[in-house]
């Protein structure tokens, strides 16, 4: 069929639809024969369009109004524009030169006028300076100090204008005369003061002395300082003679007499002499500070002499503290007195300066080096408290157990720390406060190690009661929180340059470690109950099992013990984060114990492995509900993160069980299963799997040959075989049947470390400390906390490593779940 004109025009339509057009052209099967003619017509139409496009492009390129011609025209116009700009610039430069020539004479006239004005001003000032100098000499001879003060300021101000003219002889002579007059006035005023005080004529000559101080003020700071220094020395001369030249009067026993003497002297000054000196001189403050400086040096000598006695130091700590307290009271009295003095007008220069004197520590600084004696006395007091705390019962006989209670000794020790730190902060905020901090840190370590960990080691083979473990956990958490608060308390009071040296993080970690040890002791309580179930599992004949049931009988027994102990323990754990930590570690422990007992159940047939895998599934689903026993868990659904943790821990045994499910015949199937699930190259591990399956030694050689061949193939486990499986290597190499260090397979380092010490078979509280050391080393190696191995490792370091492990691996017990404080039932929780 042929394409109509309307059809051809439809090709130019904006919304052209080729499908609709084709359906129109070939609306009936009989029209298919016209495909060739339609194609030829379309091709013809295409050729016509191509010719039209070519014609238009040619016309556009070579026509009279082409783009090339327009570009050439624009370039010509641009060149013309640049020429005009250059012409304008040349004319502007020429105009500038013409204007400069025209104004040169005007500039010379302006310079001449300015120099003439400066010369007339200088001559006028020189005339004023000469006149003022002559008048000042006359007033100085007649001791008219008030007029001298005003005129002296004018002379000195005028003289400053001629500093640059001193090369002129007349100006130089005048400058020397003014300086000589200043010196004469200074000596004359000092002589007047000395005579008035020596003859006791201060009251009679008070008016002259007041005006003389105005002259000293005009002479400058050096003159004022000389006069004030002379006055202070005069007032304190008697004090120095009485208390420095007499051993009895100057001893520490008579420290109160020193302060009483100065209070009388200060009262005399304020009643008789203060009116003489200008208020902004603050002579009374200078007098007080000079007294403090001298007294401090006296005390330094007395204290040093007491410590160097031939018959040994004779310095009583109680006398030292009494003198120090009296000194600090005196300093605080001076501070309050001078801090409240009225200031000068805000229009004066001196009022813009802050009061320079600070009396806190001005005398008591002499006692600070000897506060180490007091720090030592606190050390002895704490040393006597720790053994007493170790012997005290966890709960007083007249009190009942409460899940929120802490050990009473913790409250007592905290109050002791708070009072001691507050007292030391009043006495010293420097090295002694830092020394006391180190002492307190030492006994925090001992409290965590000897008291808290000591309680966990009681109870013989059964371990301490659950209530005792809960009290230790609460106390460790209490001190973990308050150790951080103590650190902030000290940092706010110690000198700023020592703030960085205050660090109680190790002690905080030690208490976190004690809390972790308490959680693991609770886990061990559950483990004791599970031993009979694990024994039943090991006694089952897994090599002759013919069918798979819902779950084995030992599973019901195991879950019964786990749930009953969890239901007993979790309601007693107050904080959600510790309950979660307990559940996490319990799950890890059960997973590790399950793998260990699988190894001890050899040989295991394929049906037995399938039954174990089903048992594992039943255990996993039941363990997901552990958190429901905690009273703080308001939701009926277990936390998603906990469910994930349970599945992660329990699925670690899947590669082993899935490998055991594969029959040894055909042999290639077992080898491939091992390479897929275990995915390592270890001949030893493969041989252990064969032994676990009960494969005869005669049949193992062929399987080992196939294993050696297939493990080198590129298809083996995707070519990503490891040298030795992190699960099987420690597991199958353990000769004791224990779990060993299965932490590398993803389990809890702490649980594995305790299991390595024998917790999965029998819990012995007497050796818990040693197991905690092992746990700390294992967790440190895995989490990168630090090297906690070697014979020289202390229990404190391991407790800190456990604390760091809980921070990083369990989420910090505070950072992961938030921090809540445990409040004692019979005592309100003390706050720093």
TrEMBL record:
Q: How does it sit in the membrane?
A: Peripheral membrane protein
List where in the cell it is found.
Endosome membrane; Golgi apparatus, trans-Golgi network membrane
The source's domain of life comes to Eukaryota
**Main subcellular location of this protein, as a coarse class:** membrane
Q: Where does the UniProt annotation place the signal sequence?
A: none
Domain Vps53 N-terminal positions = 15-391
Query: Transmembrane region positions?
Result: none
| Coiled-coil ranges per UniProt | none
Q: Which Pfam families match?
A: VPS53_C, Vps53_N
* Vps53 C-terminal domain residues: 610-695
The alphabetical list of record keywords is: Endosome, Golgi apparatus, Membrane
The cross-references to InterPro entries, in alphabetical order and at most eight, read: Vps53 (IPR039766), Vps53_C (IPR031745), Vps53_C_sf (IPR038260), Vps53_N (IPR007234)
**Assigned protein family:** Belongs to the VPS53 family.
- What is this protein's record name? Vacuolar protein sorting-associated protein 53
């Amino acid at each position: 069929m042929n394409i109509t004109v309307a059809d051809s025009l439809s090709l130019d339509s904006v919304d052209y639809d080729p499908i609709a057009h084709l359906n129109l052209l070939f609306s009936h099967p009989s029209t298919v024969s016209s495909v060739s003619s339609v194609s030829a017509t379309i091709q013809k139409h295409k050729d016509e369009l191509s010719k039209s496009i070519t014609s238009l492009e040619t016309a556009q390129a070579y026509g009279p109004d082409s783009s090339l011609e327009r570009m050439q025209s624009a370039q010509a116009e641009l060149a013309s524009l640049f020429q005009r700009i250059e012409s304008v610039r040349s004319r502007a430069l020429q105009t500038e030169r013409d204007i400069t020539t025209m104004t040169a004479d005007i500039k010379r006239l302006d310079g001449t006028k300015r120099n003439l004005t400066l010369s007339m001003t200088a001559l006028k000032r020189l005339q004023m300076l000469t006149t003022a100098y002559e008048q000042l000499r006359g007033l100085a001879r007649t001791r008219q100090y008030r007029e001298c003060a005003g005129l002296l300021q004018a002379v000195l101000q005028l003289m400053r204008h001629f500093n640059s003219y001193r090369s002129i002889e007349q100006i130089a002579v005048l400058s020397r005369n003014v300086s000589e007059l200043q010196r004469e006035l200074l000596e004359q005023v000092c002589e007047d003061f000395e005579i008035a005080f020596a003859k006791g004529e201060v009251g009679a000559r008070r008016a002259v002395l007041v005006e003389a101080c105005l002259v000293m003020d005009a002479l400058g700071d050096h003159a004022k300082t000389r006069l004030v220094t002379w006055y202070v020395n005069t007032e304190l001369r008697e004090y120095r003679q009485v208390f420095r030249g007499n051993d009895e009067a100057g001893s520490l026993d008579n420290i109160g007499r020193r302060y009483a003497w100065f209070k009388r002297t200060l009262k005399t000054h304020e009643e008789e002499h203060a009116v003489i000196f200008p208020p902004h001189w603050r002579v009374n403050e200078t007098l007080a500070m000079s007294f403090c400086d001298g007294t401090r040096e006296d005390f330094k000598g007395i204290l040093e002499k007491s410590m160097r006695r031939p018959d040994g130091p004779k310095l009583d700590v109680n006398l030292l503290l009494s003198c120090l307290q009296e000194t600090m009271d005196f300093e605080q009295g001076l501070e309050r007195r001078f801090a409240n003095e009225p200031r000068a007008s805000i229009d004066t220069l001196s009022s813009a300066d802050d009061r320079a004197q600070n009396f806190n520590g001005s005398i008591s600084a002499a006692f600070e080096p000897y506060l180490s004696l007091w720090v030592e006395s606190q050390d002895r007091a704490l040393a006597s408290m720790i053994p007493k705390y170790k012997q005290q019962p966890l709960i007083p006989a007249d009190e009942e157990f409460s899940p929120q209670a802490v050990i009473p000794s913790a409250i007592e020790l905290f109050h002791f720390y708070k009072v001691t730190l507050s007292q030391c902060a009043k006495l010293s905020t420097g090295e002694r406060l830092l020394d006391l901090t180190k002492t307190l840190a030492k006994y925090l370590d001992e409290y965590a190690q000897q008291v808290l960990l000591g309680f966990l080691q009681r109870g013989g083979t059964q371990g301490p009661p659950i209530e005792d473990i809960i009290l230790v956990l609460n106390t460790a958490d209490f001190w973990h929180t308050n150790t951080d608060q103590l650190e902030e308390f000290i940092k706010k009071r110690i000198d700023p340059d020592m703030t960085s040296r205050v660090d109680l993080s190790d002690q905080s970690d030690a208490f976190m470690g004690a809390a972790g040890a308490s959680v693991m002791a609770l886990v061990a309580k559950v483990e004791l109950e599970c031993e009979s179930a694990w024994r039943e599992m090991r006694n089952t004949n897994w090599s002759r099992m013919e069918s798979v049931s819902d779950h084995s009988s030992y599973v019901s027994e195991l879950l019964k013990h786990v749930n009953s102990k969890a239901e007993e323990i979790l309601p007693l754990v107050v904080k959600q984060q510790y309950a979660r930590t307990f559940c996490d570690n319990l799950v890890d422990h059960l997973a590790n114990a399950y793998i260990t007992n699988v190894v001890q159940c050899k040989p295991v047939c394929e049906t037995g492995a399938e039954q174990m895998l089903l048992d594992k599934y039943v255990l996993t689903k039941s363990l997901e509900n552990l958190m429901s026993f905690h009273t703080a868990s308001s939701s009926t659904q277990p936390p998603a993160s906990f469910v994930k943790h349970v599945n992660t821990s329990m699925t670690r045994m899947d590669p082993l069980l899935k490998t055991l499910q594969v029959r040894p015949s055909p042999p290639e199937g077992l080898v491939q299963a091992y390479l897929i699930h275990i995915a390592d190259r270890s001949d030893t591990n493969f041989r252990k799997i064969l032994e676990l399956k009960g494969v005869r030694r005669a049949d193992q050689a062929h399987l080992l040959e196939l294993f050696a061949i297939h493990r080198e193939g590129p298809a083996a486990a995707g070519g990503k075989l490891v040298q030795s499986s992190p699960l099987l290597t420690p597991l199958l190499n353990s000769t004791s049947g224990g779990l060993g260090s299965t932490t590398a397979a993803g389990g809890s380092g702490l649980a594995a470390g305790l299991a390595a010490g024998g917790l999965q078979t029998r819990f012995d509280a007497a050796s818990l400390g040693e197991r905690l050391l092992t746990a700390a080393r294992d967790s440190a190696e895995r989490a990168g906390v630090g090297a906690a191995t070697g014979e020289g490792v202390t229990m404190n370091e391991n407790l800190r490593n456990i604390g760091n492990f809980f921070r990083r691996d369990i989420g910090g017990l505070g950072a992961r779940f938030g921090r809540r404080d445990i409040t004692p039932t019979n005592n309100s929780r003390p706050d720093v």
